[in-house]
Amino acid sequence: MWNQLEDFFTKLPAPAWNLLLLGLAVLSGFIFKWILKWLLGLYAKKQETDFSLFRSIITRIGQAANYFLPLLVINWMLPLMELKPRTSYFVDKTTGILLIISFAAVLIGLIKVGQDFVTHKYDISVQDNLRVRKVRTQLLFIRNIAITIVVVLAFCAILLSFDSLRRLGSGLLAGVGVGGIIIGFAAQRSLSNLLAGFQIAFTQPIRIDDAVLVEGEWGRVEEITLTYVVVRIWDQRRLILPINYFIEKPFQNWTRTGAEIIGTVFLYLDYTIPLEAVRKEFDRLLTTTELWNKKVSVVQVTNASERTLEVRFLVSAWDSGKAFDLRCYLRENLVTFIQKNYPQCLPQTRVMLDADKLSAAASIPAI
After folding, report:
1. Were 25 and a residue from 38, 73, 139, 218 both cysteine, which residue would form a disulfide, CB within 3.0 to 4.6 Å?
2. Which candidate, 305, 189, 205, places its Cα nearest to that of 250?
């Protein structure tokens, strides 16, 4: 039987033999990938938590492995194929280039798997997330740098696989110094952004999910890339700024040293307002809401104009989002309280009338 199989394969024409090897290579690569996916899937199902490292591996690397494993087996079987020298060179170079690209995709997938693991370990939804936001900011910058390095190295590996480009590179080596100076002047803006990215990643004037006031807009830092920062405005708009903006220009960071923040509410009331009653209502409102973190609660008259008193209500909350909601809650309920109980104490304009002048005006006959 084995002799018959051997005779069958030896009598096959070269194109059929090459197609057979190609089919076996692709099939074996996919079989190995399916077995690996099945094993990882078994481990992923055993995970009781929402996050599974094996599930992340399947998601991030599965698509790249569909191409990398068959190409790897094809590369191993190339010496067994019966090809003409020119065809063999073309197939070998094409397979090598595709193998480099697919391997780079696998490496990028592994980088993203590491990002998923760190992101799960450092949950940003916790109450005091200052340390988590520090790690997340550095993680995003390191991920972008690592992916850029993988792409550049893959591109260089593809170029160096051609002898003509390799010789060309050695001939241009003497002009690298002058070319580097020219490129440096031409790309100094991009280089400054890159250096600003390094500075932000490690000195961290801003971090992911920081509450910032920039260009007159309040929002949260949603994304930090190598060249720009995305700030999600409170009304869901996105403000996109170059990354060196946060190095060169002043801005407000409301969560630089912690998520807790103090908010203020101003009311302008008549001089007749009973402040003690308003203070008691303010304290009652704070005890009925979970937005207040029970640390700061102050009522003060901070100014007095010719018509009204400026009353400031100072409160603290766990973060800027809760502080905004708490301020709105207090403002609405305090105004309602004053409207119901002391409507005469809302701002009003007084006019002094002289009784004698009114009598004299009333005695003048109408024309």
Report:
1. 73
2. 205
The token pair at 11 is 């009598």
Dig out the tokens for 252 from the structure. Answer: 């407000």
Residue 179 exposed, middle or buried by CB count within 10 Å (0-12, 13-18, 19+): exposed
pTM, two decimal places = 0.50
182 phi/psi in degrees, rounded to 5: -65, -45
238-242, strands of its sheet edge to edge:
238-242, 228-233, 217-224, 211-214, 252-253
- Per the CB < 8 A criterion, the answer to whether 97 and 155 are in contact is no
Q: Please report, for residues 67, 95, 208, 305, the alpha-carbon distance to residue 63 in angstroms, rounded to integers and kept in the order given.
A: 7, 18, 29, 69
The pLDDT tens digits of the residues spanning 139-169 come to 777 888 888 888 888 887 777 776 655 555 4
The per-residue pLDDT for 248 is: 83
Q: 7, 209, 19: which is closest to 119 by C-alpha?
A: 209
Q: Tokens 């068959």, residue?
A: 70
CA angle 322-221-312, nearest 5°? Answer: 35
3-state secondary structure of 126: coil
Query: What is the share, in percent, of the chain residues with pLDDT greater than 70?
Result: 66
131: exposed, middle or buried (Cβ count in 10 Å: 0-12, 13-18, 19+): exposed
Hey, which of 111-120, 166-175, 195-204, 260-269 has the most confident mean pLDDT?
A: 260-269
Asked whether the beta carbons of 222 and 240 are under 8 A apart, the reply is no
Q: Whose structure tokens read 């992916």? A: 147
Between 167-171, 173-177, 318-322, the lowest mean confidence (pLDDT) is in 173-177
Number of CB atoms found within 10 A of residue 129's CB? 21
Burial of residue 219, with CB atoms counted within 10 A of its CB: 0-12 exposed, 13-18 middle, 19 or more buried: buried
**DSSP, res 205:** S
